[in-house]
Amino acid sequence: MSFRWRLLAAAVVLAVTLAAVFALSRRDGPAAEVPAVAASQRWAAGHPPGRHAVVNVPADLAVLFVSSEELAGAVAAVDVPEGAMVSPQMLRRPQPGDASRTTALMQFSVSAELWPDPGPAAGSQAVFSSSPGGCAAALATLLSAVADESSARVTVEATPELAAALSDGQWWIWESPPGGWPRCEQGGRD
């Protein structure tokens, strides 16, 4: 697909998105607007933001989107498709002293029954084990959690080492007690 066609497709996506945002937020009188970022090319996860356009969105929706000032020093946490309005969840800030390392966002299914009410939540410490009640192959802090009656999806930010440890197995995941959870022996699973 030629560059012109991709640019035209991105412009159409932006126009439709802006029309939808405007229609959903319409009130009596003119609404205040603020600038927000839309990707004009695909941004690869783990790399700085690529080309983008600044578009206006209603001020009351500004919290859902990123402004161009917020891109300084940021890298894409997930692949951002061309023409997407950029949300804060699509970015992460590099950690001090960690400029050369990248992290990945990893999502896992968990049983809501293994978590005390009200279930998994952002900021909770999670135990990853290959068997129920077994030793911890990894401990990680949840970035987010989305749950229904019986199951949930949790997201963690993983260093390359943690991503390698978690990518090769099926996991039982539950909330770590305040005192922690015993770790597995070096190189072993339970």
Describe the structure.
There is one protein chain. The protein is an alpha+beta fold and 190 residues long. It is built from two helices and nine strands; from the N terminus they run αββββββββαβ. It has helices at 3-24, 160-166; strands at residues 33-39, 52-58, 75-76, 91-92, 104-111, 125-129, 138-147, 151-158, 172-175. The protein has a five-stranded antiparallel beta sheet, with helices on one face. Strands 1-2 form a two-stranded antiparallel sheet. It has a two-stranded antiparallel ribbon with strand order 3-4. It starts with a helix and ends in a 15-residue tail after the last strand. The model has no long low-confidence stretch (mean pLDDT 79).
Main attributes?
single chain; 190 residues; alpha+beta; 5-stranded antiparallel sheet; two-stranded antiparallel sheet
